[in-house]
Write a structure and sequence with these properties.
The protein has 623 residues and is α+β, with helices and mostly antiparallel strands. It contains 14 helices and 24 strands.
Length: 623
């Protein structure tokens, strides 16, 4: 009898442990204001250090039941950290408050599993295909190997002598992919690769309030000159270009071909499912006169949806919802198919564009960067532009997508969450889709009477030869309606003692002779060339930058661009950072934050603070 009782007790214990092992703690992370799901939020069960992330619907799961009183911490960039005490072992809903509401507390509500999850199932949209998701719970911190991510090497611009090399020539860049990609790393507590940090894209991720008149031209130009924050002996020249706004009723009809990567590498919650929701946002902005087609590629390419009126949103949404991921990646074949379809339905004087969405992992057919660029350059002759959207992590091919977008007369964006999709396809739709000028080149001639040395901050992979400025066969950047482009130069004024010129004086040559009349107050001459979206001949414009512009009364635009430059240089451990730091970047950002209509600058401030907390103990120039 005693043995039977012991066996019964052991059986109950085994049953209890079996039940415990199969139990799950479920929850959901949502925005407190909008109720929208927050994807890729980081959730940590403190006692066991078990970590997971919310999926595309904001849901997360721990494969065990926590104890009453355990602590769970939830973090996501742009929101306050939530730390809660478990009072119910089954489930919870976590409402995160944006950092814009710092004085409000975070409300966390618990319900029992049957009530909470049952209500969610009744009110939620139909479940998406299981093939679109990967398991989200795990026991160790999720760290994605960078071995299969690729970034083009960046060698920072050095200071140049205005006497020896007075001309600085480059192509504009309105991409913001580097900033949102680096945000992804910082959000996961990782330091980004140095070559992932493109400072010009940090600066140009944000719109600037440039009050300029274009005088019948596609854009206008402003400039500011002030003291360089990270080196008081130097000056900082801020150049702002603003594309003209286009009235909604005057926006031309669009002929858009969505080219979507549905290969196996896209089978993750932050890839194909996020991609689908992003494109739905764009579809919702389209009009009856706009046409949308859908091409997919995996092992081969195919047309999923023939050009369909933007008024028929149900048909387009249904086509997107039917997408499944699997197979290899025949990207070049997909590009050819998409361009052919766009050409067949070309709208004269319209917006003809292929929008490629991928993680960049092409492995079937043409796959080398050089061959793909040649393909895109050939296709752009038909005046069909290419936008490239990057998704995912681990095997992200940033270098490939950057080159494709640059060659295709379009922009490159990295979509790391649904809020970034809204920025690209809702808040900045005109600038994203409607090009008002292409092949825009900038050439600045510095006057050595006032400028000893200068350095262009960023744009390392956009530099042009001086003779390319007047060569209309050389490709350059584009600007969309209402978009702004910003460039910064660090200036060493004549007479300034600086250690940047460590070259011995020449033995057989004297200093360059400065021409008579150069002491006219002109610090530099800014020249720009651009073509109309369907044109082949460029137009030239000229502006003068006066040395008398130097002032201490600087705008929000100036401070914000300087903050982003300082932040980027800190992440790169730049040799030119001098007295700069993450803390300085934060101070500059606070000065330049301004109105911040959509909260992007508030988010950036918190990213800078996170970077300072994570990496700020490392001295500049050290690892």
């Amino acid at each position: 009898m005693k043995q039977h009782c012991m066996l019964f007790i052991l059986s109950l214990c085994a049953l209890s442990f079996s039940f415990k092992d199969n139990a799950e703690f479920k929850g959901k992370v949502i925005d407190d204001q909008t109720g929208e799901a927050i994807i890729m939020a980081n959730i940590v069960h403190i006692p066991t250090n078990t970590k997971t992330q919310s999926d595309f619907d904001g849901n997360f799961t721990f494969p065990f039941l926590p104890e009453i009183g355990d602590q769970i911490v939830v973090t996501y960039v742009g929101y306050e950290k939530a730390q809660l005490t478990v009072t119910n072992q089954l489930s919870c809903v976590i409402r995160l408050k944006s950092h814009t509401n710092l004085d409000e507390s975070i409300e966390i509500k618990f319900k029992n599993e049957a009530e909470q999850l049952g209500q969610e199932r009744m009110t939620s949209s139909p479940p998406r295909p299981a093939t679109a998701y990967l398991n989200t719970h795990y026991y160790e911190p999720r760290r994605h190997s960078l071995s299969s991510e690729s970034y083009e090497s960046i060698n920072e611009n050095e200071f140049l002598s205005a006497a020896d090399k007075p001309l600085s020539t480059f192509s504009i860049d309105v991409d913001g992919a580097s900033y949102s990609n680096v945000r992804r790393f910082i959000n996961q507590g990782q330091k980004p690769p140095v070559d992932a940090v493109r400072i010009e894209e940090f600066i140009n991720y944000f719109n600037y309030d440039y009050n300029v008149r274009s005088k019948g031209k596609p854009f206008g130009v402003v400039s500011e000159l002030g003291s360089c924050p990270w080196n008081e002996k130097h000056q900082l020249l801020h150049i702002g270009i603003k594309g003209r706004e286009v009235d909604t009723e005057n926006i031309p009809a669009s002929n858009l071909v969505f080219l979507i990567d549905v290969s196996g590498s896209m089978n993750q919650s932050n890839k194909l499912p996020l991609l689908i929701q992003s494109f739905k946002m764009l579809v919702n902005q389209m009009r009856e006169q706009d046409k949308i087609a859908l091409v997919t590629y995996a092992g081969r390419a195919g047309v999923v949806l023939e050009p369909t009126s933007g008024a028929n949103k149900v048909a387009i949404h249904d086509a997107l919802d039917r997408l499944r991921a699997g197979g290899s990646t025949a990207g070049a074949q997909g590009i050819k198919t998409a361009y052919d379809l766009a050409k067949q339905h070309f709208i004269k004087n319209g917006n003809n564009r292929v929008i490629l969405a991928t993680d960049g992992d092409f492995n079937v057919g043409i796959s080398s960067d050089k061959d793909l660029v040649n393909l895109i350059e050939e296709k752009r002759k038909d005046n069909i532009f290419l936008n490239v959207l990057g998704f995912g992590m681990g095997n992200y091919k940033e270098s490939k997508m950057q080159k494709l977008a640059n060659s295709g007369n379009g922009s490159h964006s990295y979509i790391d969450n649904i809020h970034e999709a809204r920025k690209v396809f809702v808040d900045e739709l005109q600038g994203t889709l409607f090009t008002i000028a292409k092949d825009i080149k900038i050439q600045i001639e510095f006057n050595p009477t006032y400028v000893s040395h200068y350095r262009l901050i960023g744009y390392e992979n956009r530099l042009l030869r001086d003779r390319d400025f007047n060569d209309d066969t050389k490709d350059a950047g584009e600007i969309g309606a209402g978009h702004s482009v910003t460039a910064l130069y660090e200036i060493v004024p004549v007479g300034t003692t600086s250690n940047i010129n460590n070259v011995d004086p020449l033995k057989y040559q004297k200093n360059n002779t400065i021409i008579k009349g150069s002491k006219n107050g002109e610090m530099a001459t800014l020249k720009m060339r651009h073509k109309s979206p369907e044109g082949n001949i460029s137009e030239r414009q000229v502006w003068i930058i006066e040395s008398s512009q130097f002032t201490k009364n600087l705008s929000n635009n100036y401070y914000w661009s300087a903050a982003m430059a300082c932040f980027g240089m800190a992440l790169r451990n730049s040799d030119h950072l001098a007295n700069g730091s993450y803390s300085m970047a934060e101070t500059l950002a606070l000065k330049g934050k301004g109105e911040d209509k959509w909260g992007y600058r508030t988010e950036a401030l918190n990213i800078i603070r996170s970077a300072d907390a994570l990496f700020g103990t490392t001295a500049v120039g050290q690892e």
